[in-house]
């Protein structure tokens, strides 16, 4: 089960968010070498833009998978960091489009449980994104990714379109072939990925309490 941390809930989930930054360090700094990181955590300026996070938390409290979501109308990686991937086109921007980034899965942990668990978690993260999009009335989620991840999206039967031609990018010390894509948000897309994953239950839990106590709550003495 994944759960959703909205911007107004960040302060209530500090330990989970820190565990997420630690996972991102292991993925983007140690394994991929794309960014330097600091203090065993990976965090960038887009985490200051009030994102929504979708995370999977293990029984011991650690985060094993996550993704960051930002409104397309504000600062985002595709328009502000990787505009070359749009091949001269304008970056999609509207109220019904959001951008995903920092898609991370703890492959070391999940491979220790078997490859099927890794595939299941990746599918669950895709499904969580689509469920999130449906709950927000989105039409698509745009993202910057590499060709390997694009193949995973295609294999999951998630309908998508390329927003430009793949381009070689230098991330940290590594050269990758990056591409911008837009995943369709619809009931049909949800059903297509569920059918491929053979997983029919909802995967996303959204906390309904924004704080432990309302501001005007008083404990009786």
TrEMBL record:
Catalytic activity line of the entry: a fatty acyl-[ACP] + S-adenosyl-L-methionine = an N-acyl-L-homoserine lactone + S-methyl-5'-thioadenosine + holo-[ACP] + H(+)
Task: Report the InterPro entries cross-referenced here.
Answer: Acyl_CoA_acyltransferase, Autoind_synthase
Q: Name the UniProt key words of this record, in alphabetical order.
A: Acyltransferase, Autoinducer synthesis, Quorum sensing, S-adenosyl-L-methionine, Transferase
E.C. designation(s): 2.3.1.184
What molecular function terms (GO) are annotated for this protein? acyltransferase activity
The record ties this protein, via SUPFAM superfamilies, to: Acyl-CoA N-acyltransferases (Nat)
The residue range of the signal peptide is none
Is the keyword S-adenosyl-L-methionine in the record? yes
Q: Which family does it belong to?
A: Belongs to the autoinducer synthase family.
- Name assigned to this protein: Acyl-homoserine-lactone synthase
Q: Which organism is it from?
A: Kiloniella laminariae
The organism's taxonomy opens as: Bacteria, Pseudomonadati, Pseudomonadota, Alphaproteobacteria, Rhodospirillales
């Amino acid at each position: 089960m994944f759960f959703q941390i909205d911007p107004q809930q960040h302060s209530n989930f500090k330990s989970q968010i820190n565990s997420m930054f630690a996972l991102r360090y292991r993925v983007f700094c140690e394994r991929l070498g794309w960014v330097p990181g600091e203090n065993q955590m990976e965090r960038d300026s887009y985490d200051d833009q009030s994102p929504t996070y979708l995370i999977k938390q293990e029984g011991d409290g650690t985060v094993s998978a996550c993704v960051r979501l930002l409104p397309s109308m504000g600062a985002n990686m595709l328009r502000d960091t990787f505009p070359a991937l749009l091949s001269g086109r304008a970056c999609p921007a509207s109220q019904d489009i959001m951008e995903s980034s920092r898609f991370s899965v703890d492959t070391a942990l999940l491979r220790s449980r078997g490859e099927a668990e890794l595939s299941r978690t990746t599918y669950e993260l895709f499904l969580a994104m689509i469920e999130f999009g449906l709950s927000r009335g989105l039409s698509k989620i745009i993202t910057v990714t590499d060709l390997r991840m694009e193949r995973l999206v295609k294999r999951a039967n998630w309908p998508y379109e390329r927003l430009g031609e793949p381009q070689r990018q230098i991330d940290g010390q590594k050269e990758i072939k990056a591409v911008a894509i837009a995943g369709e948000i619809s009931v049909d897309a949800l059903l297509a990925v569920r059918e491929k994953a053979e997983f029919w239950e909802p995967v996303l839990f959204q906390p309904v309490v924004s704080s432990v106590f309302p501001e005007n709550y008083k404990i009786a003495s």
